[in-house]
Amino acid sequence: MHARVTRYEGAAPEAIEETLQTKKRVLPTEFGQTEGMKGVVFLTDPKTGTVIVISLWAGEDAMAASEDEATRVREEVTGSGETATVERFEVSLLEVEQADAGR
Which of 16, 31, 86, 100 is the most buried (most CB within 10 A)? Predict the structure, then answer.
């Protein structure tokens, strides 16, 4: 599994919810929406206005195949005064508590 980590910085902290919603509306966040994408995590820092998006991919090839679209979408959601930086990683360990299906 691989991960692309995109850090958006420079948005006004008081507009963090609007910034987050803009990114969530445009970025592919639903399963099956982008081939090979296995999940996404949005992290926010309301004090600084920073939004970090971690997308998880079945493998390096799947992540690489999505690069052109990821660049286009990133340019679309990067707001005025914001910068976007990207890093790519191999996921060495992923543990997530599963939601209780009975609830």
Answer: 16
CA atoms within 13 A on the CB side of 34: 23
Nearest CA to 30 out of 20, 39, 17, 22 is that of 39
Give domain 2-90's CATH number out of 3.30.70.100, 3.40.50.920, 3.30.428.10, 2.60.40.2000. Answer: 3.30.70.100
Cα 22 to Cα 16: distance, rounded to the nearest angstrom: 10
pTM: 0.85
Token pair, residue 83, equals 């910068």
pLDDT tens column, 41-57:
889 999 999 999 999 99
Burial of 9 by CB count in 10 Å (0-12 exposed, 13-18 middle, 19+ buried)? middle
